[in-house]
Design a protein that fits this description.
Length: about 270
């Protein structure tokens, strides 16, 4: 139940909570183009004892899921504020389903976009906690500023899929169609497997102590937003013209941490 609530809190990134104390009206609302996805979310809502309603909007071009309930709305509101500062994998998965895209191209990437810097920062923080390299930049549009967090390269996307991943069927399908990353069955996706594979079910050998049962704790720096970037290229305008994308300091720490873990593992193996 806890993970479901955290996941629903993450989905609020593309929705809102309606609270009217005078009318005693408390609503949780999210939106998506996929009715199938919202039906899956409705199933999760039912598992925690509430009823979800799905309505067609815009002539059936998109759909809205609505849940009524004071306790649920207040719980999600509290979780939202707390998890922005200390995101869990379930919360990050909700954020990804709400605001991330799976893009095949040059480079291959998972692109997360939100108008609120705090929301994008939370997603970046979750990636750092899971030792997933990422970059950040800003896209300026006539309608305002978008804060972007991007994971590039198939290897890094694989790590993202294993540790956070998607529940959204269309996004899980793209992971498989593009790179052969298989998603776990929806009914068991919230279960914590022994080796921490939380979003993909493809066969990969995992070395215990490096990406397995021992969790690597790394210092998490605040994401750095580059306000001069106006290109949609993950590395910004300079990278789009052939320049090199600017990585965050956290990527260096990630390499150092993995190297240290490999050294410890090899030392133990030799000693044995």
């Amino acid at each position: 139940m806890k993970e479901i609530l955290e996941y629903l809190a993450g989905l609020k990134a593309d929705g809102y909570l309606l609270v009217n104390k005078k009318r005693r009206d408390y609503q949780y609302r999210i939106y998506d183009k996929s009715k199938e996805f919202l039906q899956l979310v409705a199933g999760l809502v039912e598992r925690i004892g509430y009823e979800a309603h799905i309505y067609a909007r815009g002539g059936g071009r998109w759909y809205e899921l609505v849940v009524y309930g004071k306790d649920l709305v207040l719980s999600i509101g509290g979780l939202w504020r707390r998890l922005l500062e200390d995101p869990t994998n379930a919360f990050a998965r909700g954020l990804a389903d709400a605001e991330a895209s799976v893009i095949k191209g040059n480079p291959n990437r998972i692109k997360f976009t939100n108008r609120d810097a705090a929301v994008a920062q939370a997603f970046a923080r979750a990636l750092a906690k899971n030792v997933v390299p990422y970059r950040t930049y800003v896209e300026r549009r006539a309608s305002g500023v978008d804060y972007v967090v991007v994971v590039t390269g198939v290897d890094n996307i694989t790590v993202f899929a294993e540790r956070i991943g998607f529940l959204h069927p269309a996004k899980r399908k793209r992971l498989f169609d593009f790179w052969g990353l298989r998603a776990l069955p929806f009914s068991i996706i919230f279960l914590e497997p022994r080796w921490g594979c939380l979003g993909a079910g493809h066969d990969r050998k995992v070395t215990p102590g490096i990406t397995g049962s021992s969790r690597v704790r790394v210092p998490i720096d605040p994401a750095v937003w580059y306000p001069d970037v106006v290109s949609s290229h993950p590395g910004g305008a300079a990278a789009a013209k052939g320049g090199v994308a600017r990585p965050l300091k956290g990527n260096v720490r990630w390499v150092q941490t993995v190297a240290r873990q490999v050294g410890l593992y090899l030392s133990g193996a030799l000693a044995a």
